[in-house]
């Protein structure tokens, strides 16, 4: 069910939820494949982060250190970029607001997170 929803309405949060489900029920390979497909359609840092996470689960000990290094770098960028953004004034926030703290308008935030300065439009 989540899969077809993701096809129709791709979003970072939905991909997150789907990834956790697939990882838990179908294993790391299936989860990695899901993310690879998604990255081809819609290349994002969050997708890359998830791909690394899936590979970490299955990685041999000697590769794990390198993967963790890359994942740490990607995670740093996501922290900076993975934000909500007001459509009215462009105010960015880490959490979702019904009312923008920047301009005071209601429901100006799309419920999707953004990865680019221009907004993440899926
Ligand atoms: Zn605003």
> How many DSSP E strands?
2
Q: Mean pLDDT, nearest integer? A: 79
Return the structural class: mainly alpha
The percent of residues in helical segments reads: 55-70%
Strand arrangement across the biggest beta sheet:
1-2
**Sequence stretches where pLDDT stays below 50 over 5 or more residues:** 117-122
Tally of discrete structural domains: 2
**First and last CA, distance:** 19 Å
Ligand names = zinc ion
Q: Helix-strand pattern, N to C?
A: HHHHHEE
Can you describe what's shown?
The protein has helices at about 1-10, 10-25, 30-40, 45-60, 60-80, and strands spanning about 85, 90-95. With about 120 residues, it is mainly α. It has two domains: about 1-80; about 85-120, no CATH class. Strand 1 and strand 2 (about 90-95) form a beta hairpin. It binds zinc ion (ZN).
Describe how the helices and strands are arranged:
Blueprint: H1 2-8, H2 12-26, H3 28-41, H4 45-58, H5 61-81, E1 84-85, E2 92-93
Antiparallel strand pairs: 1-2
Helix pairs in contact: 1-2, 2-3, 2-4, 3-4, 4-5
The structure holds zinc ion.
Zinc ion (ZN) is lined by residues 86, 88-89, 91, 100, 102-103, 105, 108.
Core attributes:
mainly alpha; globular; 2 domains; single chain; 5 helices; binds zinc ion; two-stranded antiparallel ribbon; 122 residues; disordered C terminus
């Amino acid at each position: 069910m989540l899969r077809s929803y993701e096809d129709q309405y791709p979003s970072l949060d939905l991909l997150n939820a789907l990834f956790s489900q697939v990882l838990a029920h179908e294993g790391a390979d299936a989860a990695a494949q899901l993310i690879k497909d998604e990255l081809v359609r819609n290349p994002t840092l969050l997708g890359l982060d998830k791909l690394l996470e899936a590979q970490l689960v299955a990685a041999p000990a000697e590769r794990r250190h390198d993967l963790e290094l890359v994942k740490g770098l990607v995670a740093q960028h996501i922290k900076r970029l993975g934000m909500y953004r007001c459509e009215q004034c462009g105010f960015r926030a880490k959490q979702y607001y019904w009312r923008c703290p920047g301009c005071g308008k209601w429901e100006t935030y799309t419920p999707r997170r953004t990865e680019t300065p221009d907004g993440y439009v899926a």
